[in-house]
Design a protein that fits this description.
The complex is a heterodimer of chains A (192) and B (303). By secondary structure, chain A is α+β, with helices and mostly antiparallel strands. Chain A contains 2 helices and 8 strands, in the order ααββββββββ. Chain A has a single domain, classed as Porin (Beta Barrel), CATH 2.40.160.20. In chain A, 17% of the residues lie in helices and 55% in strands. In chain A, strands 1-2-3-4-5-6-7-8 form an 8-stranded antiparallel barrel. The longest helix of chain A has 18 residues. Chain B has a single domain, classed as 4-Layer Sandwich (Deoxyribonuclease I, Chain A). Chain B has 7 helices and 19 strands. In chain B, strands 3, 4, 5, 6, 7, 17, 18 and 19 form an 8-stranded mixed beta sheet that branches. The mean pLDDT of chain B is 92. Classes of the chains: A alpha+beta (192), B alpha+beta (303). The interface between A and B is large, with 66 and 51 residues. Strand 3 of chain A pairs parallel with strand 1 of chain B.
């Protein structure tokens, strides 16, 4: 069977997205040279502690990212998030994994809460269902193969950094008919 | 849509299509173990204090499958077996993970066979350190026609074998097959791994062993997809049962529950399959210590 490594795919994704991320950079704001240090420090503090000021550039409401482990079902998936407000968002992570001929389809929609943090550094909590389908084709002529479907729930919490790039590190629990299992994951992508 | 956005979309789509798989090597034929020389030479013997008590052909045969986790302390293992009334008097034991080292007094299978008062056959599957690692059969009845098959090598795995022999019951030579499959496989590769050893067996036969049917999907033989196993049925044991049932085998161990508990995870790693025989439900003896597996047994009514 063919074997594909995930790392090159992820790296290719990052490389391909780099131009798009560069295009998404906000236009620098011109400030008088004498007050620039103070202004920058104040802006930085504000963004960390209380979110961006009203005059800040448009908040990056959309996020698209690659998720390693986490809610993806397999070892990697693709995620999208939309920020409804400063403290609330929605999103989903999905993946299709081919595992020695077995096909695992996974989709995890979720609601995101940001109880603590500013525009860049935040603690997040997410919850939502996990829908999965596993198709096992037969590798031999004397057997027909099988398939199964399942639904469970996921509760995720962790740290998020969001400023042009999106980085998340999180822990989670998966709950389903098989029981409860702890897990973890990492997201890397872009806030647009 | 800009070129950059199109490239990004294409790359991200590719990222969701994670694909991986282990290489499964070629199949091999059964070979007479007497033709194997060198470090993988088979050994056989009978208790040093005399032959087992000859018995008339029984109406039923109690068969045990037991992964003995290297069997280093044969005396303790024998004591554990003798201490369980359900398996102490079994007629045939199909044993996995036996080892033999020149610096020890005798092959561990020989020591266990001696301690249990049984005839024994040890067939190495691979060299391990200064010795070997393999399968064994122990029986109150003569063990004849031993043959082994190198199971397909799995990428990242080790050489595994199946051991086939006949239990000589006088007017019946009952074929038995002892197997020990690779660990971190998905069910599709597990079927390909086992298939050569079971696809062309006679109509009347018993197959048993450590088939390592764990409850996970594996990514590249490395990462168990633990969360997915909570949501969807990824247990390999019932799927392998279904495959064997398609070959006409009864699956008496389908309902026995776990045969191993490790890191808090219980798995039905061991199995017994019969064809052409009347068989009751199998049982697991979870009070037997001395290994990371529990022995499984079944009573077979002889034709």
């Amino acid at each position: 069977m063919s074997q594909y490594r995930l790392a090159p795919i992820v790296l290719a994704t990052v490389a391909a997205l780099a131009p798009a991320a560069a295009l998404a950079q906000p236009t620098p704001v011109s400030v008088p040279t004498a007050v620039a240090p103070l202004t920058a420090a104040a802006a930085s503090a504000a963004s960390v502690d209380a979110g961006p000021p009203a005059s800040a550039p448009r908040r990056a409401r959309h996020a698209i990212y690659v998720e390693a482990l986490g809610r993806a079902g397999g070892v990697a998936g693709l995620g999208y998030g939309y920020q409804i407000s400063r403290r609330l968002g929605v999103g989903a992570v999905g993946s299709i994994n081919l595992l020695d001929g077995q096909r695992l389809y996974s989709l995890s929609p979720f609601v995101t809460l940001y109880p603590v943090g500013g525009a860049r550094h935040r603690w997040f909590v997410e919850a939502g269902p996990h829908l999965a389908r596993l198709v096992t084709p037969s590798p031999v002529p004397e057997w027909d193969g099988t398939s199964s479907n399942g639904i469970g729930g996921q509760l995720t919490t962790g740290y998020e950094y969001r400023r042009h790039v999106l980085t998340r590190v999180f822990a989670m629990v998966e709950v389903g008919r098989g029981g409860v299992a702890p897990w973890f994951g990492v997201d890397l992508g872009w806030a647009l | 849509m800009s070129r950059a956005v199109r490239r990004a979309a294409a790359a991200l789509a590719a990222a969701t299509l994670g694909a991986c798989g282990l290489e499964v090597g070629p199949t091999a034929d059964w070979i007479d173990v007497a033709t194997v020389a060198g470090p993988l030479t088979a050994k056989t013997g009978q208790p040093t204090d005399g032959l087992p008590v000859e018995m008339a052909r029984p109406a039923t045969l109690r068969v045990v499958s037991f992964n003995v986790e290297m069997g280093a302390d044969a005396d303790a293992l024998a004591a554990a077996i003798r201490g369980n009334p359900n398996i102490a008097g079994a007629d045939v034991y199909l044993v996995q993970e036996e080892e033999d080292y020149p610096e020890e007094s005798a092959a561990r299978a020989a020591r266990l066979g001696d301690a249990l008062g049984l005839r024994w056959l040890y067939v190495p599957g691979r060299v391990k350190g200064t010795g070997t690692h393999g399968l064994a059969i122990m029986s109150r009845f003569p063990i004849t026609a031993p043959a082994k098959m190198d199971l397909p090598m799995i990428e990242k795995g080790q050489q595994r074998i199946a051991l086939r022999a006949a239990i000589d019951l006088g007017d019946l030579a009952l074929p038995v097959v002892d197997v020990h499959l690779e660990t971190r496989l998905n069910i599709t590769d597990r079927i390909l791994h086992l298939r050569p050893a079971v696809i062309d067996l006679p109509d009347t036969v018993l197959v048993a062993g450590d088939v390592n049917t764990n409850p996970y999907l594996w990514d590249d033989g490395t990462v168990p997809l633990i969360p997915t196993a909570q949501v969807i049925d990824t247990d390999q044991a019932p799927i392998l049962d279904d495959y064997m049932a398609g070959l006409g085998f009864a699956t008496p161990a389908a309902g026995v529950g776990p045969t191993e508990r490790k890191y808090g995870v219980e798995s039905r790693l061991d199995a017994i399959y019969t064809r052409g025989l009347i068989v009751g439900e199998a049982h697991v003896e979870r009070t037997v210590a001395g290994s990371d597996h529990w022995p499984v047994w079944v009573d077979v009514t002889l034709p």
